[in-house]
Amino acid sequence: MDKPLSLDDIRKEITELDTTVLKLLSRRRELSLDVARSKIEATRPVRDQTREEALLVTLIKQGRELDLDAHYVTQIYHTIIEDSVLTQQAMLQQLANPENRKPVYRVAFLGDKGSYSYLAMRKYFSRTCDDLVERGCTSFSQIINEVESGTADYAMLPIENTSSGGITQVYDVLQHTTCSIVGEMTLPVEHCLLTAVPSSESQINTIYAHFQPAQQCSEYLDSLTGIKIESCDASSAAFLKVSELKDPHVAAIGSADGGELYGLTPIKTGLANQKENFSRFIVIARKPVQVAEQIPAKTTLIMSVEQKPGSLVEALLVMREHGLNMCKLESRPIQGNPWEELFYIDVEGNLQSSHMQSALEALTRITRYLKVLGCYPSEEVSPTHVPLDKLPLPNNTATSASKTESAAASAHSLVARNGHPDTEIRVRHTVIGSDQFITIAGPGIIESQEQLNACAQQAKECGAAILRGALYPPQINQDGNLPNEQQSLQYLREAGLRFDLPFITEVHHPEQVTETARQADLLQIGARNMQNIELLQEVGRTHRPIILKRGLMASLDELLQAAEVIMAQGNRQVILCERGIRTFEGASRQTLDLGAIPALKSMTHLPVIVDPTHAISHINQLAPLVYAAKAAGANGIILDIHPQPAAALSDGETLDFDGFAEIMSELRQR
Ligand SMILES: C=C(O[C@@H]1C=C(C(=O)O)C=C[C@H]1O)C(=O)O
């Protein structure tokens, strides 16, 4: 046998490979700039999602042959394509505005090195400029001043955050500025607790933070007792303070990257109220820019309307009449005019386009005040997702409404079909209730992080849209050798992030709902809780889609009444689930009521899915029920999977990975 390579030799080879990878990426960037040039001549848009999809399909297939899983390949290429699109956009933008090119840009931002605005600025300008003169400021008005007076060429300003909403002071300084918005960018914002010397969360008695990050972490901060929160002008100021104090009892809130510049280390991560915390920044300059027509553009307007009924609606109707999509509407009090509001509107479209021009003309006639704050390239490059029927499958596994509405149903005002078109419920890039048949897959019960991750990976590889996993009931998990509720939720959250899958888990008690809804993308009400009114009401107050399982002894009317209870609280995103009912038949555990699918479809507009897990006595009986559910018009299926079904703790029938892959492959032929 050959002598194995030494660690040094292996690492040498890896380093060489990585150098090659970098050279290839750099060449790819060059080529994408050539593509951009050809798009100028052909006046084609930069983004071509048909091409991206075809490319991803080929790469996934090739990746599989090289033992690389689809999710890994897709993730890497989403990053590469995003870079390619933004690099092309930056180049076209520079060509469209040649007078703005300078070797060095002076940029004003809030705080100092390491603040979030600083990180956003570095990222944004990395595509357009080699050198920056950083002009750290202590307030938003100082930042705007720098640009207005010509001391800085650009300003980077945070405008909104997914946890704390619009940054009102920035909206207010925009009211009077003579500057224009010339760009935007979105930055993922991961708040951490950082210290200068080794410490632990329990030792901390003082936290330094800017009030915006503090607001975005309010739930975490509220959960602490006896801790002093010291407010700082920017996260960078908090870092500086903590680095000077060198005290194990003090910590700063900010990003890990920013803290590193001050020698700080994170002792806790993921502090924000929202699991996906993003901030959007705008870039300001003295003069407006032209947006090249190949690039998707956004235009920001500010306006005020007459104080009379319907005047705002009338203004918004102008957008509709001109086919313009409004992606943001904020209102702020007009300074000096008590109780009058100024509306900030972001519209998708180029200011130069004829429909935008004619919309503005129409708006001028019906508004009291109207000003364009700027037109700029939209930096949102939403990833292209390969549709299920085109996703190449793993090689090793796959081989191959009633006429009249029921009177009872029409009595339910919110759920009833009453001519209402099918409700489509969007969960990230999946739509439940459309023509697409979706699969929700995962372990019946979460037994360990490894087990959950293995299931999530297989679910993703085979094209499932949503990950499921039930938390082990604490009353049974008494010796505590299985993950508890909190750990299971955390595992689900991590698996969801890692495999880019939204996830669902069941809630049993009203008290669980708020916390679970904060983390999970959907919530499930189990069959035995279908008539638990308090629980139904509680989930009805959340913003998450709810899968409501039919009770073992519940009629369809009763199921719809339960859905009505949820919807009456405000949450209109209910998905009904047929999971088998109790009959005299003992051969199957419960009897899957396939007739319920078309019946529900005529009674209600809500999506209907099927969980066949409890309606069979042997796993071999599962596949036909899955295909039958699809044939009967269900919108999707729930499948329990497990790496070793024989050892599974779940009480339902569980598929092994090969059996699951086979069903997924067969499903797309049907
Ligand atoms: C490079 C191109 O532009 C964009 C980027 C792509 C890529 O990086 O592969 C693919 C399609 C376009 O959205 C192209 O059109 O080929």
From TrEMBL:
Instruction: Look at the named UniProt entry and state the broad enzyme category this protein falls under.
Output: isomerase
Q: What ranges does the record give for the region Disordered, renumbered to this chain?
A: 387-410
- A GO BP entry: L-phenylalanine biosynthetic process
Q: Which residues form the Chorismate mutase domain?
A: 1-92
Q: EC no.? A: 5.4.99.5
Which Gene Ontology terms cover its molecular function? aldehyde-lyase activity; chorismate mutase activity; prephenate dehydratase activity; transferase activity
ACT domain span: 300-377
**Could you state one GO cellular component term attached to this entry?**
cytoplasm
| SUPFAM superfamilies, alphabetized | ACT-like, Aldolase, Chorismate mutase II, Periplasmic binding protein-like II
Family matches, as Pfam families = CM_2 (PF01817), DAHP_synth_1 (PF00793), PDT (PF00800)
Q: Where is the composition biased (Low complexity)?
A: 397-410
Kindly state which keywords UniProt assigns to this record, in alphabetical order: Transferase
Domain Prephenate dehydratase stretches: 106-286
Entries under NCBIfam families matching the protein = CM_P_1, DAHP_synth_Bsub
Give the protein name, as stated in the record: chorismate mutase
Q: Which organism is it from?
A: Corallincola holothuriorum
